Amino acid sequence: MLELLAGNEALALGAYHAGVMVASAYPGTPSTEILEVLSEHKDIRTDWASDERVAMEVGLGASYAGVRSLVVMKHVGLNVASDPFMSSSITGINAGLVMIVADDPGMHSSQSEQDTRNYARFAKIPVLEPSDSQEAYDFIEYAFDLSETFDTPVIVRTTTRISHSKSVVNVNKVRTEHNRDFTYNVSKYVLLPGYARARRPDQYARVAGLEEHAETFELNQITLGSKDVGIISSGVAYQYAKEVFPDASFLKLGMVYPLPKKLISDFADGVDKLIVVEELDPFLEENIRLMGIELQGKDIFPTIGEYSPDVIAQNAAKAGLIDNIVVSNKPAEGLPKRPPLLCPGCPHTGLFSILSSIGKRSAPKKTTDINNSGLVICGDIGCYTLGTYPPLSAMDINVCMGASIGTALGMERANVDKKVVAVIGDSTFFHSGISGLLSAVYFDSKMTLVILDNLTTAMTGHQDHPGTGVSAQGDQTRKVGLEQLIRGSGVNDLEVVDAFDIKTIKSTVKKALDADHLSVIIVRGDCAVRIKARSGPRAVETEKCNDCGMCLLLGCSAIQKDGDKVRIDATLCAGDICTICEQVCPRGAIELK
Amino acid sequence: MDKVNLLIAGVGGQGVILASDIVGEVAIAAGYDFKKTDTLGMAQRGGSVISHLKIAPKVNSPLIAQGDVDILLAFEKMEAARWAYYLKPDGVAIVNNHVLPPLSVNLGVETYPSDDTVIADIKRATDKIYLISGTSMAADLGNVKTLNMLMLGAISHFLPITDQVWKESMAQRLPAAILEINDRAFEVGKKEIRNDNLR
Ligand SMILES: Cc1ncc(C[n+]2csc(CCOP(=O)(O)OP(=O)(O)O)c2C)c(N)n1
């Protein structure tokens, strides 16, 4: 049957058909939909883990127990999961274990651009790389087979463009299960130095075995074209290269680690010029050079950013590989951009507007100097990172998930001459903020920690987490009480405030900033995107409005300036779930329409 | 045409993604290979959305090269100006005459381009510009959200796909309760590709 599937849907379906029994993930663009789609199958078990490390451990445990298991994360998730990941290469597996790791060339929605293939070589774990949805569907089964044949986890590497593009898939398999028995095996599963040392040579023997297998592996394919140019490529870059060099010979690698030496050198011998086209790091290039083979790659094509047919064609033309391309049109200049924004009715807006005004980051109709701010706001990753942009301008630091509290502790330890605030979302707090909080208590920190609790993982599309008490499959499960968790860690000063009650947020934040101890404030309110039932929008009563500009400082996209009049876009306003603009208007000019 | 490259541009919340999914389904139903790719950035709402769609006997890259777009379907006026440079010299631009000001414009930091500027920007790429009042017609029908099906009606003019295939795909993707109004929007859109809408 032919279906139009996104790469992520195809990966999920491939995993289901390959007999996956247990899947675990932490959301992260562009990987999130894989577990969401798998969760629709009620005959298997899928879970959002609190973080990627736990997801990896769940996958490992399930594999040891004897069922095929799947672990899914975005590229930076593998940083978090790297400890069990590195060890998994030594223990090996029992039933197949496949990890889908999604890279984000171009950093569409990530804080870093990293190439997962490097991790694979580091850990000596093989990597398959599909180049469209059909391959995404097909490769998963190959990955499980390799995993079981070679006693190793296998990575299927995808990228944003593969995960989020849709293409035609011939869905031609049915689900078959491949369960095994669990057997005790201390010398395999217990990584005491003595046991682990004994398994080290096995890792290298495995890589050698995989190299040999790669020589004839059907996912590594040669298509002979012109002898002039031979291209080695993989993933979506292959699809682009195929369009730019329609006549060239191609070696398309479905397995990008380990590499088939003989296949590559035979291919190289058959062409006049060998070129590697790969997104991100010169991974294939360097490995092939080590085989003593001459080629071109990153001297022509960029290392940074996402590829496209244009990127490849322009650089190929510069290098004289193809005729010059005439680009007749240029992008229009000076058009206003549309940066991502907090949504109208967002429960994060109130807190940021208070931090912005207390921290002297914004004032109506005046420019402010951030250097006069008495606060340093250590932020974190989530929708709330958008509080960084003007007019709110209420975030100064944002490194990676969970780093808000640790960086705030560092600020304090360094005696920065400002009040230190950490701001973190609920999902991020459960993911990696909790360990920061333990240190904050232990360091006897005086900081103000704000947890923006919108009761969901909003940024990635509203996934559940330990604080919601609902599983990935939609079942009611047990819930971690945020307040109990925080109190239990030793925090004495904890306040919970309504995200849409500006006055209380303001007084609570002020009190916390002045306190000489660790204060935690939970700002709680539902994500506006999830609330379907909405009352009538607010409106500005033009006679009362004196255009003071206070409401515009909220950065709410529903509040618009029309000449010297302020108006509220009725189609965008979230209605009375929010009313923050009504609360900040000094003249009472904003009311229900 | 046995090979069509489409670019659909709009703003988050306007229904661009559903529209491009339906184009894919009709293309496959009509026997073509098809790939599409959406770029949404990290916003839930309000950011630029751009969708590349390729219909051909065999498609490799899901991304379209600059200067290779046959039809630009823009759900918002400034987005039309932003993406027009992707058009082929004889390409067609179908533009919804509707303004969604970005925050910087609301705050008075930047100004929204005038109608003349927008048209001039698109004119640099093509002379075939259909300017249609999609949003207000959708509102007149009783539901602004039908804009996306109205725009599909407009584009259906240029694709080698029968109405029946379109209607079947819409019936599959849309809830029964709103199917009828969306059908009407599709029909309204179809009538908008006419000379007096050319700019
Ligand atoms: C290690 C890692 N995993 C996943 C992500 C993707 N990601 C970024 S923020 C976030 C969670 C945001 O949820 P929350 O903290 O509740 O904030 P909200 O978006 O709801 O405001 C996720 C999953 C990431 N950046 N890094």
Walk me through the topology.
The complex is a heterodimer of chains A (about 600) and B (about 200).
Chain A: E1 2-6, H1 7-17, E2 22-25, H2 33-38, E3 45-48, H3 52-65, E4 69-74, H4 75-80, H5 82-91, E5 97-103, H6 116-123, E6 127-128, H7 133-150, E7 154-159, H8 160-164, E8 165-170, H9 186-189, H10 193-216, E9 220-223, E10 226-233, H11 235-244, E11 248-253, E12 255-257, H12 261-269, E13 273-277, H13 283-289, H14 309-318, H15 349-358, E14 375-378, H16 403-413, E15 419-425, H17 426-442, E16 448-453, H18 482-488, E17 493-498, H19 502-514, E18 519-524, E19 538-540, E20 559-562, E21 565-568, H20 580-584, E22 590-592
Parallel strand pairs in A: 2-3, 2-4, 4-5, 5-7, 6-7, 10-11, 10-13, 14-15, 15-16, 16-18, 17-18
Antiparallel strand pairs in A: 1-8, 6-12, 9-11, 19-22, 20-21
Helix pairs in contact in A: 1-7, 3-5, 11-14, 15-19, 16-17
Chain B: E1 4-11, H1 16-29, E2 33-39, E3 48-56, E4 69-74, H2 77-83, E5 87-96, H3 103-106, H4 115-123, E6 128-132, H5 134-141, H6 147-156, H7 163-173, H8 176-190
Parallel strand pairs in B: 1-4, 4-5, 5-6
Antiparallel strand pairs in B: 1-3, 2-3
